[in-house]
Amino acid sequence: MNANNYVVGVDFGTLSGRAVVVRVSDGAELGSAVHEYTHRVIEQTLPGSDVKLGPDWALQSPQDWIDVLKIAVPAAIAAAGVEPEQVIGIGTDFTACTVLPTTADGTPLCFETPELPHAWPKLWKHHAAQPHADRINELAARRGESWLPRYGGKISSEWEFAKGLQLLEEAPDVYARTERWIEAADWIIWQLTGVESRNICTVGYKGIFQDGAYPSEEFLAELNPGFAGFVGKLATGSVGDDVNGVTVAPLGGLAGRLTGQAATWTGLPEGIAVAVGNVDAHVTNAAADAVRPGQMVAIMGTSTCHVMPSDQHAEVPGMCGVVRDGIVPGLWGYEAGQSAVGDIFAWFVDNFGHDGHEQLTALAEKQAVGQHGLVALDWFGGNRSVLVDHNLSGVIIGQTLATKPEDVYRALIESTAYGARMIVETFEKSGVPVEEFIVAGGLLKNPFLMQVYADVLRRPLSVIGSDQGPALGSAIHAAVAAGAYPGIEEAAAAMGKRTEAAYVPDEARADAYDRLYAEYRRLHDFFADGQMLHTLRAIRNEAHA
Question: What's the pLDDT tens digit per position in 276-335?
Fold first, then answer.
């Protein structure tokens, strides 16, 4: 039966959305299409206006997401050459935490008041809520909140509560109108099914939902009396509970059936299965058939997210979170990450590397390890793990009048590899072994970068067997939701793919990198308190005011 059936996976990324049509029996990808967001990332001014945004703001438009359903999905079906009637399910994934305020029926507030910045969805890389995250962390530590260690001791400015507190204190009128504060991953499912739900992944990692509960009303009121009822805007209870008609749904579950309106948008049959929403990083584990304990998947693109299922429960310093059932049911799901990776390389090329990525890579890979005399901190977008401080910034040490663009470019690549090694070592020191390191994402296209990571990490790198990892993972979840497989593990085994040990470390280069990594650690620890870097950021922000 599965040989004649197909599913669609839709990946909503930072700059575009892509759809892929996948055969249920073996995971073959038969057709795909990409829709570039019209509004891309909204960072300077609101669309169609001169309303300026402050430092570290990053917004998106919900209309761009709907356009992906209208444009990319039908195009992918056409490219695949299959009949829409052969499609039995659709699954989606989203960047996270990307969160938006809506009315009770799901209407985004930016559709009603587009002139108000806080009415728009805040993208994952909106870091302007760092002061609010700082206050949440300080109060949680002082009160000894049991949930704080589940997030490595700090919650992020990217997440639902920090952004929600920013909304309350900077735009109380918008906060008052907000009847739902919802992840885009769940909002898009609402649009597809007409049923509101919350997936366990975003609820757990981004919504501080642990052991069946959110932070207490007492805790929230101590932050700000007006914040006491914030959880009511999330409208969820424990897994399987029904609170205000909304449930926390398990991954791979059936969120609902495709509505007539969504069928018109996508060209798919009304009533097919719609899988529970998920996060782009976490859904990729299924695409790489990495759903067993100890398989860490690094999704490397503009940023890197490290996700891993494990049968061990531990409190790992600086992790983004550990959530039961957060990647696959029955296991603990861990998440860590680096706020900027590809973004760092793009920043350098756009501003200083006129030769472009390919030429800089060709020059950089001719160098011996350490030849440039540099070491850098990969904090150009802040530090997600293990310091959880988005007010940190990048540092490059060792430049001279002889330093060339390719020297800096290579040092920046190496800095991100050092950051990844820091994350892996922190997990293993905490008693959570990393058995296999698997790479997915757009940076797989750079073999030199992959070899640097293998050498720095001193371990083989496996690579995913798809260019569309999140979209394939979403399709696999759709197959489970449609009943084609009994669970994510079975579907991943049949439809997922990876190449083991695609890159193997060179012993001599690895030894040389150990010396440089030791200097990275010294630099990391020296600037970790943030005193100098925070002061520089504050001076910058004052100058912008």
Answer: 999 999 999 999 999 999 999 999 998 999 999 999 999 999 999 999 999 999 999 999
Q: How many CA atoms lie within 13 A of 239 on its CB side?
A: 19
CB 327 within 8 A of CB 443: no
H helices of 352-482, in order, are 356-364, 405-429, 447-457, 469-481
Residue 3: Cβ within 10 Å count: 9
Candidates 261, 280, 253; CA nearest to 106 is 261
Sheet architecture: strand order including 254-257:
29-36, 16-23, 6-12, 87-94, 273-275, 254-257
- The structural domains of the chain, ordered by start, are 342-423+507-544 (3.30.420.40)
Q: Cα separation of 108 and 363, whole Å?
A: 48
Contact criterion met (CB below 8 Å) for 261 and 170: no
Beta strands in 146-261 (DSSP E): 180-183, 198-199, 248-249, 254-257
pLDDT in tens, 82-108: 999 999 999 999 999 999 999 999 999
Under 8 Å CB-to-CB from 206, ≥6 apart: which residues?
A: 96, 97, 99, 158, 159, 160, 183
